[in-house]
Write a structure and sequence with these properties.
Blueprint lengths: L1 H22 L5 H10 L10 E6 L8 H16 L2 E6 L7 H9 L5 E4 L2 H13 L4 E4 L11 E6 L1 H16 L11 E6 L4 H17 L4 E6 L6 H13 L4 E5 L5 H10 L2 E6 L2 H6 L3 H4 L2 E7 L1 H14 L6 E5 L6 E3 L3 H6 L2 H15 L13 H10 L3
Parallel strand pairs: 1-2, 1-3, 3-4, 4-5, 5-11, 6-7, 6-8, 8-9, 9-10
Antiparallel strand pairs: 10-12
Helix pairs in contact: 3-12, 4-5, 6-7, 6-14, 8-9
Length: 378
């Protein structure tokens, strides 16, 4: 009987010790549950969880590459837990993917493009406890828990147009006597035409008599189409083409290499991205009109982490905000003549100082854009 009582006492002591140990383990589960129930933030030391949704696939060395690079900076510089989801080209799968990801435990959901903005906004409105960032949209309205960004693509394209017009008039080895430059866009839509109008006006700033050949691929993921359209332009007398076609634009560089002509990249520094795999091709990309998407994403997430990001609004990032610029890499400095670099720099400073006003196709009627295209048609 005494042995049974002693055993029972020992068992009770063990249960009490175990319970106390669980309550003081420091794993934070109880504290986090309380914060979650009250709508508070995660306990100190928890990693920020950030997911990037790509409305397409990686590999374009342009728009999506820049966004992915931005997420990598968020991981490396802010110590966040990150994930990239390639949603593919089947647009019917985009909205379900947005909803599925929003239902998971990510703190910040990032995606980009005016094409996804409407469904992305709807996802944000349905998930008020999450934060959302659209890294590139021309639509001003944003839900209270979303931050939107866009870029002064008309201004950076103006600078690209000036650089192209200077190149075609120069004695650069692959320039010809024809005063014609080219433009290949992914689609005939306002976002692409914002680049086009700026490009045309920048070229005309250098030479009012310049002609601009314009083609649209109708696709952002078709390099073969991009090459086909570019070969037609090069064969017609164009000696430099501005790529504004995403993955389709990779075909422009193929055509440039085949015809030994020049090109201008877009969104990312495309010459440096191709340098290690095809140096000859890279050396024909004299510069790129860059949207600094990677820096913009990093800056937005950092402000969100610090509690200083203004949600429910859209910011337009230009030269002054360091949101856009042209690539002034080693290829630009070696291939593009120094006197032309100086002239491009002069135009850039005038843009920064607001001495030059560039029209924006985002506010234009279709007929206005068409008139601008027709005025410079070769």
């Amino acid at each position: 009987m005494k042995k049974n009582v002693l055993a029972l006492l020992l068992l009770m002591v063990m249960v009490l010790v175990t319970a106390c140990g669980n309550n003081t383990s420091g794993n934070g589960n109880t504290a986090n549950s309380a914060n979650d129930a009250e709508g508070g933030e995660a306990a100190a030391g928890d990693k920020l969880k950030v997911v990037l949704l790509i409305p397409g696939t990686l590999g374009d060395k342009s728009f999506f590459y820049a966004a992915n690079n931005g997420l990598q900076k968020v991981k490396d510089e802010l110590g966040a837990e990150t994930k990239v989801v390639e949603m593919g080209t089947d647009k019917t799968k985009w909205e379900p993917t947005f909803n599925d990801i929003a239902a998971e435990d990510w703190d910040v959901v990032i995606s980009g493009g005016s094409e996804i903005t409407e469904m992305f906004n709807a996802t944000a409105e349905a998930n008020p406890d999450k934060k959302f960032i659209n890294y590139d949209t021309d639509i001003e309205e944003a839900p209270a828990n979303m931050y939107n960004m866009s870029y002064s693509t008309n201004e950076v394209s103006f600078l690209a147009g000036a650089a192209a017009a200077l190149a075609t008039q120069s004695d650069m080895p692959n320039a010809n006597k024809e005063n014609i430059i080219g433009f290949v866009g992914g689609m005939d839509i306002p976002g692409i035409n914002a680049f086009l109008v700026g490009y045309i006006q920048g070229a005309q700033y250098v030479d009012p008599e310049v002609k601009v050949a314009v083609s649209y691929a109708g696709d952002f993921v078709n390099p073969a189409k991009g090459k086909e359209l570019s070969l037609i332009q090069y064969n017609s007398g164009v000696d430099i083409i501005f790529n504004v076609a995403g993955g389709t634009g990779l075909g422009i560089f193929d055509a440039a290499k085949e015809k030994t002509k020049y090109a201008i990249g877009v969104d990312s520094d495309q010459a440096m991205l191709l340098k290690d795999t095809d140096n000859d091709k890279a050396n024909l990309i004299v510069t790129s009109a860059i949207k600094k998407i990677d820096s913009a994403i990093l800056g937005a997430v950092k402000k969100l982490q610090d509690g200083t990001l203004e949600m429910g609004k859209r910011d337009v990032l230009g030269f002054v905000e360091d949101g856009v610029g042209i690539a002034e890499n080693e290829i630009y400095k070696s291939v593009y003549p120094a006197d032309l670099q100086a002239k491009v720099e002069e135009v850039k400073q005038k843009l920064i100082n607001k001495e030059i006003t560039v029209d924006n196709a985002m506010g234009m009627e279709t007929s206005e854009v068409e008139a601008i295209r027709n005025a410079v048609k070769p």
